[in-house]
Structure prediction request, 283 residues.
Amino acid sequence: MYTATINLFKMENYYGILEVKQNASSDEIKRSFRNLAKKYHPDKNRENPTWAENKIKLVITAYNTLIDATLRKHYDLRLKCVKDVVVEKKAADNKADDIFTQVNMVLRDLSNNKGKEAIKNFEEMKKGVKNFKLQKFLSGRDLLDCIFLLAEEYERSGNYKVSLQFYKDIYEKEKKTNNGSNQSFFFEESRNKIKKIYCKKLVKSASTQEAIEYYQNVLKLGLNNNESAYIYKKISECFFDLGDYQSSFAYLSVALEKKPSLKGISRIQTKLNQFIAAKHGVN
Prediction:
């Protein structure tokens, strides 16, 4: 079967037009040309003379190119380049289709409690695809479901920093979409997860300075007075441990403004009052 055009650039395939193979000899090209010239001769195609005329012109152009050694060499180089591009494009398209299938398999596995398998396949995709992003292959609720389920699975496996980034992505997306409305399931759940990871997981292995940064990030989540009072108290405790009593006192003061009945502060409050008294020379 002979193809007369290379679709990507609409380049005429002169070998296909002359119905010969690309390695055809000059004699084979001549013989095929004579047969096609007879086939498309106007006298044999009186019912469709315009079609026959166009065909014979194309056959002559193909013949003149391929029968000349120099013209044929240049033509072959162009044809090879075009074919290479076509092959590369098809390979890229097939790869994209394959990745799309793999992403959907990850979502399916996550939904069917096959989290470890999903994470393994997800990590392999990230390594194998340059600038891999889920939003290139998923959208809408499927995208949110996939990100949230990945975050949960990474959290379960103890990979809290990766999990945290996924939760943050959802939180920011939903914050923009809903203008910060707390009516969104993903908005509320991701915010609660972010608080939990910062306050219950990451601080356990963090330095005091890192813990302060984690708590300060939590304050950006739009907490209520009770929640923010607790976080301000924790920051106050961190500064106290660092010996920065002035900052500790300032954060504790804000905590008490948020919640005057805040519990668990007697020890640090006593120490800070002693610091303030000593600073002002009060016995």
